[in-house]
Structures are given as C-alpha cells and as structure tokens.
Specification:
Blueprint: E1 2-5, E2 16-20, H1 28-43, E3 47-54, H2 57-61, H3 74-83, E4 88-93, H4 96-99, H5 103-114, E5 117-122, H6 136-142, E6 149-152, H7 155-161, H8 165-173, H9 177-184, E7 188-195, E8 209-212, E9 224-231, E10 236-244, E11 255-260, E12 271-281, H10 289-309
Parallel strand pairs: 1-4, 2-3, 2-5, 3-4, 5-6
Antiparallel strand pairs: 7-8, 7-12, 8-11, 9-10, 9-12, 10-11
Helix pairs in contact: 8-9
C-alpha cells in the first residue's frame, strides 16, 4: 500500500475505486465498505483508494472539547487498511481551511483532478464539504459532469451489523472489551514505550512493565484488571494488565502496567503492544498489601483460564 501525504503527493492513479472517511478503528462496518471497494476494483482492473483525514475533524472543529478519544492512531489505521486490500491511502490534513471547501470543489479538486475517481463507494450516511453540505444526492448530481460512478452501501446492510466507532468507544470506556472486540473483529490494542516505574510489583511477586502511551487522544479502556496478549517485534505472550491509580499502595497518577507471565527479559525503552482480551475485574482498594497480593493470585488464575479459552483469528 502506498501512502500519499496530502493531495499534492498523489501520483497518477489507474481506474481509481475510491471511498473516504475517518475510518477510526476500521471496524466491521468499515470492513464491509472496504470489501466492496476491493470487489469493485477487481471488476475493472482498478486500484483501491481510501481518502482519510488527519487529525480527526472533531479535534479541529471543536478544539475546546477534549472528550473525543480515538480507537486508532494514524499508523494503526494505515496498517489495518492495508490488511483489507487498500492500494492507496490518501492522508488529507484536516484544517480549518479544508473545512471551508465546498462540496463541489471537493468533488472537482480531490475526487476528479487529483484522485481520478472512476467509482466512488460510500456508506449510507456520508456527508462532506463545508458544513457537511454534500451527500449522496450531491454526488449523483455531479457524477456525470466529472465522469465517475457512485455507489452507496445501503442503510440496511450497515445497520444490520449494528456497529459504529461510537458504540465501540462506549464499550471500552466501561471495560466491555468483549463487545468492542466483536465489533472490531479483533482485539482492541494500544501501543507504547516501556518506562521505569516505582517497581512496587516485584516486591509482591508481580513485576510489571509500565507502559507510556504518547498519544493523548488514544482511548484507554476503563480502570481494571485485564487478560491481555503482549506483543513486540518478535513474540506474543500472555499477560495480566492493570489500568488505574493503585489505591492500595497510595498511587496518584493513572498507570498502565502489565505482568507478563513466565518472562524476565529487560524490555525497558522498547515498544510493546497490548491486545485486550477480557476484563477480569474493576480496580478496587484493599485493606493491606497482603490482601492485594492474595487477590492478584486469584486474578492470575482467572486471567490464565480466560486466555486459555481465547483463540487467535
């Protein structure tokens, strides 16, 4: 897959079959559009093109509202889109100036002059252009003028799946990673750098890797103990992860720390990825460190049992 950083970076494309959107999370609903995109491109010996926007439009249009958390960083989204057969990913910087582009200008400049669209495939509720003025009817009106076809994925097809990025975010915010994973078609994941912590875990038999996630907009699931898979460049291992403030030991800042089973390598300053499999319990405060240790032993049993039931797709 070739990534084009802005419309000026686009080289000549052949028989472009195009879709556009934020594609946060690349969930089942998005995958339905991408599968149709690939199918349509193969029918005309064309190339699949996804136009996406970065930063997320809400971050630009509502900068005073920090509540939006995203399911995927741009590199994560790019990796997923390539997996689903995308030949070209066009990353358009979303700015206040871009937000003022009219729907017809968007069609003329981006879809026609730069991407050379032969067919456009969109979801049923697609809007674009200044104040979201453009829609499916707008595309139908201009398609003959700019020599492309337009196809809308029916509402029934998308609604039947019952998936949206908003639903996935809400599930993760309550710790319901099982539902989120069903909507995504894979485990939800976060990636970060292993940093030095207070090393309290090793004093009770559960040494942990503290994970720093630099992207402040990345959605972190609810506080609690999770069964997870821990991945680096070379291997994937089982682990037990805690998100929270560690109230039993007087913690202040929220931390993300994972205990990797049967593992003792030094992985400081390396990047790891965490795949969330299931929530075991919410974070709670215990009367003593000994009580916490006893609970962690029970958590380990529960985590290993849950991971034994999990099978890779």
């Amino acid at each position: 897959m070739k990534i084009h950083l802005g419309i000026k970076d686009i080289e000549e494309l052949n028989n472009s079959v195009v879709t556009s959107g934020t594609f946060d999370g690349v969930h089942f609903g998005h995958q339905k559009i991408l599968n149709r995109l690939r199918e349509a491109a193969d029918q005309i010996n064309g190339e699949t093109v996804v136009i996406t926007y970065w930063p997320h439009p809400r971050m630009v249009l509502k900068p005073w509202d920090p509540s939006l958390k995203l399911l995927s960083t741009f590199p994560e989204k790019a990796t997923l889109l390539e997996k689903y057969g995308v030949d070209h990913l066009v990353k358009i910087p979303f700015t206040q100036e871009f937000a003022q582009m009219s729907s017809e200008e968007y069609i003329r400049v981006i879809l026609h002059e730069r991407v050379h669209t032969k067919k456009l495939i969109i979801g049923y509720d697609h809007h674009f252009g200044k104040n979201r003025e453009g829609n499916f009817e707008t595309l139908l009106d201009f398609a003959p003028k700019y020599d492309f076809e337009v196809e809308e994925i029916p509402r029934l097809d998308i609604d039947a799946i019952g998936v949206s990025s908003t639903k996935i975010r809400r599930a993760l915010e309550t710790g319901d990673v099982k539902t989120a994973n069903e909507y995504l078609g894979r485990p939800y994941s976060v990636s970060g750098m292993v940093v030095h912590g207070k090393q309290l875990g090793r004093t009770i038999g559960y040494p942990t890797a503290n994970i720093h996630i630099k992207e402040s907009y990345k959605l972190i699931p609810a506080d609690g103990i999770y069964a997870v898979k821990v991945c680096n460049k070379y291997q994937k291992r089982d682990g037990m992860l805690n998100i929270g403030h560690r109230p039993t030991v007087g913690g202040d800042d929220k931390t993300i720390e994972v205990h990797i089973f049967d593992f003792s390598d030094d992985i400081y300053d390396s990047e790891i990825s965490i795949e969330f499999i299931d929530l075991i319990r919410k974070e709670e405060k215990f009367n003593s460190v000994e009580a916490l240790k006893a609970q962690l032993q029970q958590d380990e049993i529960a985590v290993k049992a849950r991971l034994a039931q999990f099978s890779e797709a």
